[in-house]
Records
---
Amino acid sequence: MTTRVPRPLWTWIAASVAVFMVSMDNLVVTNALPVIRLKLDAGLEGLEWTVNAYTLSFAVFLLTGAALGDRFGRRRLFTIGLVVFTLASAAAALAPNIGILIAARAVQGVGGAIAMPLTLTLLASVVPPQRRGVAFGVWSATAGLGVALGPVIGGAITEYWSWQWIFWVNVPIGLLLLPVLFGVRESRGGAGRLDPVGTVLATLGLFGVVFGMVRGNQHGWTSAQVLTGLVGGGVLLAAFLLWELRAPAPMIPLGLFRSRGFALTNTVALLMAFGMFGAVFLGAQFLQTVQGYSPLEAGVRTLPWTAMPVLTAPLAGMFSDRLGARRILALGLALQAAGIGWLAVVLSPEVAYGRLVPAFVLAGAGMGLFFAPIARLTIDFAPVRLQGVASGTSNALRQLGTVLGVAALGTVFSSVGGYASAQSFVDGTRAAEWIGAAVLAVATVFALFLPAASVTPEASAADAEALPEPMAVA
């Protein structure tokens, strides 16, 4: 007699593998950049865009991917996102020059942006509300594992094989995952008509703001292209908000933000990404630039930071069910603030690695305690039919926070220090990490003021009735 694997298990496998692959690609390229520079004869700007093209397209298209899934079917769009990501990975591996590599990375980001938010909504569609903490905890641990292993895998493959294989590894994983999707149940949100105007305004507005932030450090914050991106993007986003208030089928029902819980949850998500990932960006460079470790050695030494979420994320999911998601969220943010503050205190050109480890552990444990409760609160504060839109909004704001954090803390770093000497690098990094710790402390305070989330199907349905029909983007 054949034993059938329960549908929720197929969904969990598909969501976990996909989120691991997409999370890993956020960081896997960082330790390969010096080799890519030599092999493809790339300049500094080319290397920056090898990283930023992925982050940029990922941030811009997250809302689009989530809304398309709600409208046309989450499993269907998840499959499309996975195929796009896999094919773009192969294109990146085959890139003959830096321009093709950047283009392939941008397409990778689009595929990841379609797939990533749908992993959460597919899970939510098969897991009862009272067990979502555990399910999201496992999801967060898998995402954390991708982040943890990204620098190590990238460094090892580049050092002992070739840089192309950091992209080739995605291809067999993507191909093996496709048959699993036949066991995933299709689901949809309550999407109504399309909102092409809102889609264009949001996409171009986010692109302008992120483009300006990404290029500000190198080209100057008062340069024409940066100011055009920031001001033009800001104007387009303002126009987007005005349009959404009038649109018959809005891309983002702004009524979601009338909920104090939803608004605060997304504010906390943006602040966390701003403070933490801006600090990670500089901390990883410190190990190589000041202490002279190779890419693989630096990746291994950051494991106490990046691997801690693998241990703490499942606990966060379990304790979120028992103690409340907002308490676990506030604890996670407080630990992150303490870890980044610790780094700012002990950092020096001659600091022993052992003195950095407690700070890495605190920051990493806090990250693990953050992702499961923030995912649960995002879903719980949204009506059932808008959960895909809510998940996409939260992920987009976190990505935007990451880009803003890297750009802003990079500006602090450049104004106070720089690459001229080890001491100059430490001076700039210390100042930037104090800012990061302060932002995380503010996020902790906001988390303490989150209302208790108590979501029932009846309440969700009632809330949904009070909001206009959401859209699926064109």
---
Amino acid sequence: MTERERSRGLFQRPFDAIASVVVPVVADAVDPDDLVDRIDVNALIDRIDVDAVLDRIDVNALVVRLDLDALLDRVDLDAVLHRVDLDRLVARLDVDAIVDRVDVERVVARFDLDAVVDRVDVQRVIDRVDLDAVVDRVDVDRVVARVDVDAIAASLDIDAIVAQSTKGVFGRFIDLLRRQVVGIDEVCMRTVTGLLGRDYESLPAGPPLAVGSDASSAPRTMSGRYAGPVSRVGALGLDLFVISSTFTLLIAGVSYLINVLFGGSHDLTESSGWIAGVALLICGFSYFWLSQAITGRTLAQGLFGLKVVRSDGSPLSPGAAAIRTVVLPFSFLLLGVGALMALVDRRRRALQDVVAGSAVVYDWGDRPAALPAPLTTFLDRREAVRVSDRADGFES
């Protein structure tokens, strides 16, 4: 300690002694409330340089030393909320400005909709919805009045809907009849093949181009396969009925016109029987030839789901269709030996098919030809047994 400091300490001691005696007496005599009342707080605040104070505050150090948990524990949120005037607060909020400053895309991008949906108890939501109240608040008349019925009707093709529905019902009915006929064909051909001592599964399924590569031994579809005798005879009988009915109506119409134009009562079938016979043959030939040359099938064959193709499955040519039509009547001469050839031929060809190089196959257009469900199930089980026996024989 220097000499100056020692002398200063000696000088300070009397004042410290006086202060220790005087200050307590003055403090007891001062009224703090009176002192606070006499302080001009507004003037004091005006003299405080807030910016300078804030500049001197180390916010980071303050935050580090601040115990937020303890602070929140000491805050009475209920009391704070009770003292907040929400109406004034909302009135002072500039909602448009807040919305303008919100980046909606960022909010949506950070919004996990899946997590929100997973946490929603849908059953509780449904239970809390008062459907009666909702329905009561719906103004049905206003809803109906705002519905543009004409626009809805214009956008719906009612005619197409009705046509498609009718087509669907008719198509299912026809397919049901076809399945039964195909099933009878299959049973008949399997029986005849068994009597002839042949292995049915080893016979050709159909023309290569018609049946394709899917020619499994236990077929689930009959599309492109050689047609059986029942469907072919049924289609031929219906075709003959169509020809005879059409020709009868044609002769009746011509006879009526002749009687109207020239008078009298003429019957072409009685007066010119040979002419009517020739006209019937021409009508029948034209019917079979044109139908098979243009579409590959007659009206009845289309109804039964049959189609006439060349032996390789390609479309039938007009020349082959003409030859087939000319030979067709000869198949039924000599007790129908030419027609019975379809039962014993490996490709189910009748005399007219052998001569014209044609074949008759199942073809249902845009739908696959199929067997009845019970027969398909039976054949699948039989095929499974055959495969199992073949595997056992191979292992042995």
